[in-house]
Write a structure and sequence with these properties.
- This protein is mostly beta strands.
- The protein folds into three domains: 105 residues, Lipocalin (Beta Barrel), CATH 2.40.128; 92 residues, Quinohemoprotein amine dehydrogenase alpha subunit, domain 2 (Lipocalin, Beta Barrel); 155 residues, Glutaredoxin (3-Layer(aba) Sandwich), CATH 3.40.30.10.
- 14% of the residues lie in helices and 45% in strands.
- It is built from four helices and 27 strands.
- A nine-stranded antiparallel β-sheet has the order 6-5-4-3-11-10-9-8-7, with no helix packed on it. An eight-stranded antiparallel beta barrel has the order 12-13-14-16-17-18-19-20. The protein has a seven-stranded mixed β-sheet with strand order 22-21-25-24-23-26-27.
Length: 401
């Protein structure tokens, strides 16, 4: 047993794997598993999504109440412990209000969707062309699935990123996948007709969003080139900005720190899971390349224009990933039109993150939309190899006289 010392009676949370489930407006569950452990006399848990273990250490108790504060995305759980089970709400703190979603969890439960699954009707391991929505609003993605018996993992890759680590199962002709990261909660269901077609898909996001999807096996499925989706407006070669960092100091590309350097400008938001995957990568990239003449700047577009609220959210990101390059508060929101207004040299901003690569002359060489994180496997490896080769090429090129 894990004991939480409080000013009242001790609250006991059982160690080991739990099953938690968020309840959507339609009644559909968004389930996930988490592992409770006792480290140094304190409670912590790890949220399980495929190969990812998302550590959460800010857990406290008072009487029969348990509070779990997520390290990112400005959300928390407010729960009651009753008969060994947990019940209450997941609370998302949005810009102007709080969104509460019902949550329940049971200990000693390692299954996610089904305790007893039927024999799978097919093996769907491989690459698929998956379409979300219909008509003019349809979005074609690439699905990557890995099935081992009833267990299913994978993700969906889109032009603006991926759905990160998904985990679930195949039972008979039914597909189930879900993920939870403290900011986003997703469930995917569908009918597997055979090993070539998936139909009747439903995608549930958060409390109320729903969308249909379907997929066809296509080992050659691919997305548009992420470097082709946005560009500078005609006549521009450079970008310019002046925004404040977390200490209130104004930072500009004209600062001496960036002269004759390769500069990576990261357009991000603390609310964006793909941005967090990119930040985790950028931290290590910066360690590798900073001494060679590379600088990184993060431009944050938050849910609010309030400086202090934005600072609080970004400080969590800085602390979580140990970010040592500047994170700037732009004062613009995450609305893509506002983002584009803040950098009027850009033709458009398609999505978050967007990464701008600047050479030693201060000229924009490439603009990359989205980020395929570690949940995408070989796609992540391909991106990092390509990105670092580009960096090496720019570093080896002499600056203009």
């Amino acid at each position: 047993m894990l004991l939480l010392q409080t000013g009242f009676a001790q609250t006991k949370l059982q160690t080991g794997v739990w099953r938690g489930a968020l309840k959507t407006k339609s009644g559909t569950e968004i389930p996930f598993n988490f592992d409770v452990s006792n480290t140094g006399g304190k409670q912590q848990l790890a949220i399980i999504n495929g190969a990812e273990r998302f550590k959460v250490t800010d857990v406290s108790a008072k009487g029969d109440s348990v509070f779990i504060h997520m390290p990112l995305f400005n959300s928390e759980f407010k729960l009651k412990l009753d008969g060994g089970n947990l019940s209450g709400n997941w609370v998302r703190h949005l810009a102007d209000n709080d969104l509460l979603i019902e949550f329940n969890a049971t200990p000693n439960t390692s299954w996610r969707f089904l305790k007893d699954a039927e024999k799978p009707a097919a093996d769907i391991t491989g690459r698929w062309s998956a379409v979300f929505g219909e008509g003019a609003g349809a979005d074609t993605t690439v699905a990557e699935f890995k099935q081992s018996g009833n267990k299913l993992t994978g993700t969906f890759l889109t032009t603006t990123g991926d759905y990160r680590f998904l985990e679930g199962s195949v039972s008979g002709h039914k597909l189930y996948l879900s993920t939870f990261d403290g900011g986003h909660a997703y469930t995917f269901t569908a009918t597997i007709n055979d090993d070539k077609t998936i139909t009747d898909g439903k995608f549930y996001a958060g409390y109320s969003a729903q969308e249909g999807w379907k997929a066809l096996r296509d080992e050659n499925a691919k997305l548009p080139d992420a470097y082709s989706l946005t560009s500078l407006k005609p006549g521009y070669k450079k970008i310019a900005f002046s925004f404040k960092d977390l200490d209130g100091k104004t930072v500009s590309l004209d600062d001496a720190r960036y002269k004759n350097k390769v500069v990576i400008v990261q357009i991000l938001g603390s609310w964006c899971p793909n941005c967090m995957d990119e930040t985790a990568y950028m931290v290590n990239y910066y360690k590798k390349y900073h001494h060679k003449g590379v600088e990184v700047i993060g431009l944050a577009y938050e849910r609010t224009t309030d400086f202090e609220k934005s600072k609080k959210a970004l400080q969590q990101v800085k602390d979580r990933f140990n970010v040592t390059y500047p994170l700037l508060i732009t004062g613009y929101t995450s609305d893509k039109k506002q983002t584009a207004q803040s950098l009027p040299m850009l033709a458009k901003v398609v999505g978050f993150p967007t990464t701008i690569i600047i050479d030693k002359n201060g000229d924009v060489q490439k603009i990359h939309t989205g980020f395929s994180g570690p949940g995408t496997g070989e796609h992540y490896t391909e991106f990092t190899n390509e990105f670092e080769k580009l960096t090496d090429d720019l570093l080896n090129a002499p600056p203009a006289p």
